[in-house]
Amino acid sequence: MKKLVMVLSVVMILAGCAGTMPDKADLYIEVAAQSAGVYPPSLEASVVGRDMRTDPYIIMYNTEKDSIAMLVSRVPPQVMVKDSLAQGLRAQGLSRGDRSEITISVVIQELQAKVTKPGALYATKAGTRLQLVIGNRGSLLTLDYNREANKESVLRPKVLDLETMLNGQLSDIVTKILEDPRVRTAIKGKM
Question: In angstroms, rounded to a whole number, what is the distance separating the alpha carbons of residues 32 and 63?
């Protein structure tokens, strides 16, 4: 009887330790401190975000072991990208103006990390595509920003590892937008 209780206890402990997949992915964007004075203090712009992805899932596991496991983002990605970009632009001196003649639109076209297992190794492909559209008093500038990463591993990648890949791509793109001289010129109206 004692052995049975001991065996059941061990099984229950091990079952409790088994990793469970979260139901949503945690994405965030890290951008370095921005230089003030990039834009004159009187300049205002509105920043909007749109999600034009065909697939709402941020992380997908498509292997025999996982069948198909899919996670959406805890925070809508278009909101997160828009807020990070707006915060960086404000730090550079651009004021928020919802009725401004200057509009900055961030369109998410792709944001996904997908895990497959075509053979002995797990293959991960992470891709991020954003389109930035700046309208300034009738002039229009459209820029595309893309990042992609591929990785193979013996062990099944953890959700945290996939989040880290996507977070790095998003952070890199928002940083590039904030540093892009074409963006600065378009916002200042010198296109």
Answer: 37
178: left (phi over 0), alpha (psi -120 to 50) or beta: alpha
3-state DSSP assignment of residue 134? strand
Contact yes or no for 102/43 (Cβ under 8 A): yes
d(CA 82, CA 54): 19
Closest by CA position to 26, among listed 130, 151, 158, 160:
160
* Structural domains of the chain, ranges and CATH numbers in brackets: 24-188 (3.30.160.150)
Stated as kind and residue range, the H or E segment containing 91 is helix 77-91
Strands 102-116 and 95-96: unpaired
DSSP structure class, residue 23: S
pLDDT tens per residue, range 5-32: 444 444 444 434 445 677 889 999 999 9
Residue 53 corresponds to which amino acid?
R
Q: Provide the whole-model pTM.
A: 0.86
Residues 6+ apart with CB under 8 A from 74: 24, 25, 26, 27
For the chain, what is the mean pLDDT? 89
